[in-house]
Amino acid sequence: MEEDKTYHTHVSEDGTEFTHSHNGHTHAHKNTKVVENRLSRAIGHLESVKRMVSEGRDCSEVLIQLSAVISALNSTGKVIIKDHIENCIVDAVESGDRKAIDDLNRAIDRFMK
Questions:
Q1: 3-state class of 8 per DSSP?
Q2: C-beta atoms surrounding 109 within 10 Å
Q3: pLDDT per residue over 76-113, tens digit each?
Q4: Which parts of 1-113 fold into alpha helices (H)?
Q5: DSSP state, residue 5
Q6: Residue range 2-30: average pLDDT?
Q7: How far apart are the first and last CA of the chain?
Q8: Which of 5, 47, 61, 98 could form a disulfide with 21, with the two C-beta atoms 3.0–4.6 Å apart?
């Protein structure tokens, strides 16, 4: 096994052992750049909403723009969830890593409040 990776072993209910690495628990996702770009746009949009509030703009306009920011963040969250399922949860299921699945379920519950 490579020295620069942290390996750990999971034992499934039938006693089968799976050893794998999370590379220090960092995850490489195919949509990282997409997520970064979406977050940058959302941050810029939120800064615009903040300026609107500082300028005393109409509350209805502020709420509409704030709604757009929330929608952009929710959309970004969906990309992250899908990417995580495709790149991490598939590996977790194959290796019997129930904790990763439980962690995702908790994260989804919090995200969808």
A1: strand
A2: 9
A3: 999 999 999 988 888 888 888 899 999 999 999 999 98
A4: 32-54, 59-84, 90-95, 98-111
A5: S
A6: 53
A7: 41
A8: 5
